[in-house]
Amino acid sequence: MGNLIIRNAHIKDGEAQKDIKIIDGKIVEIAARIQNDNNLEEIDAKGNAVLPTLIESHIHPDKAFLEDRKPNLSGTLEEALKNTAELKKLYTYDDVKKRAEKVLRWSVLNGTTIMRAHPDVDPFEKTLGVEVLLDLKEKYKEVLDMQIVAFPQEGIIQSPGVLEMMEESIKMGADVVGGCPYSERTMEDTIKQLNIVFDLAEKYNLPIDMHADFGTNADDPQNTCIELICDMTIERGYQGRVAIGHVTTLGSLDPEVAAPIFDKIAKADVSIVPLPVTDMFMTGRTERKNIPRGMAPVLSMMERGVNLAYSSNNIRNAFTPFGNADLIAVGYLLQVSQQMGSADQRRAVLDMVTYNAAKAIGVRDTYGIEVGKNADIVIYDCDDLSNLINDQPLVRYVIKNGKIIVQNELSRKMASVLMGD
Ligand SMILES: [Zn+2]
User: What separation in Å is there between the alpha carbon of 146 and the centre of ligand 1?
Assistant: First the structure.
């Protein structure tokens, strides 16, 4: 745990710069000018943007960097699942570790120090992904807080043995119960899976994080489960402990049909995590014109009080052959695709990947640039939060528990006429 004073921090647009004092990894004071009585290490933010570190609230490190082993030529979910299942049969511990570790390192270098990882738990990968990520969680504990979700990518009812593997994963140390209702063969099995996920979560008192409603066909009952999930959340008293990734089908509904569903999501306090790169890459593959780029409608949902984060989901594989674990780059795609162009809306995108994501994964109590919170801080070469995503700025510092873990000092050499006044 580190001690540090950060000088001249730009914490909020329109407010004066402040100093931040950190003792034993916690923020203890934020003020215009802080005395350095104990000769603490200091860094000068020089009026740059100082944010809590970014949160990757939904990512699959175990199946990253597979994009060229078996490319997804149709771009469909079906082919992605089929190709990845074949590759998973060939996984070794070292192969998974090498690829997952690259995701972790890139994430930290890009200003992310909190992550919820979703390793597959299925008949092909079994619990290998969970084992690898548990080892990496320990190895990287000083720079990254990781939660591990036991994610049944191939379903639970249609894949005998998966429920037992999920329970084994929890006993090994998985923190969250995953679900994938669209992976079952029938609606009846989909409902059975949802009940099993809630039962397992209740049994071990763990939060829930599912993949659901991934498509653009709002007439498909297996891809319109969100209301059912909200009802179960309320029935089981699980408000505030359920997050759902994708939910793209909501973007295909008429606004008057969608509005009461958004109200229900807000009432159940279920967090929604759009996964812009995957959502836009995989949806609309059967259309020939006016091709939809399916995503949950972020602005309309925000207006009705739904908590929305966003995340990378996949880094370079059959589901998403793109990505570099840079959440600011993903935010750029989100703000364009969701037509979030005003200063307030662009600023809201930044909230999605920080404070909203903290709520989605249950770390809000220790998170933020506030006295008493963990000193997990990223400083960007940018002085305007509403344009931070537009700037795609250099990360100057990443600070974890008050310790500097990444430092990129500017060393530009420019002709004086280019320096400005
Ligand atoms: Zn996912």
Answer: 16
Q: Which domains does the chain have, with CATH numbers?
A: 4-52+369-418 (2.30.40.10), 54-366 (3.20.20.140)
CA of 122 to the centre of ligand 1 (A): 14
Distance 120 CA to ligand 1 centre (A): 9
Mean pLDDT over each residue of the chain, to the nearest integer: 96
Please give the Cα distance from 348 to 99 (Å, whole number): 32
Whole-number Cα distances in Å, 127 to 156, 174, 183, 391: 14, 10, 18, 40
| Interval 181-206: pLDDT, tens | 999 999 999 999 999 999 999 999 99
* Residue 341 one-letter amino acid: G
The CA-CA-CA angle for residues 10, 15, 18, to 5°, reads 50
- Structure tokens belonging to residue 151: 């994610």
Please give the Cα distance from 116 to 56 (Å, whole number): 6
Q: Ligand 1 centroid to 246 CA: how many Å?
A: 8
CA–chain centroid gap for 240, Å, is 16
Whole-angstrom distance, CA of residue 247 vs CA of residue 295: 7
C-alpha 199 to ligand 1 mean position (Å): 22
3-class SS at 310?
coil
The Cα angle at residue 11 between residues 334 and 31, in degrees rounded to 5 = 165
Predicted confidence (pLDDT) per residue in 375-421, tens digit: 999 999 999 999 999 999 999 999 999 999 999 976 667 777 777 75
Could you report how far apart the first and last alpha carbons of the chain are, in Å? 40
**Å from CA of 411 to ligand 1 middle:** 38
> Ligand 1 centre from 15 Cα, in Å?
38
CA distances from residue 92 to 105, 119, 126, 128, 167 in whole angstroms, order as listed? 20, 14, 12, 8, 22
Q: How far is the CA of 390 from the centre of ligand 1 (A)?
A: 26
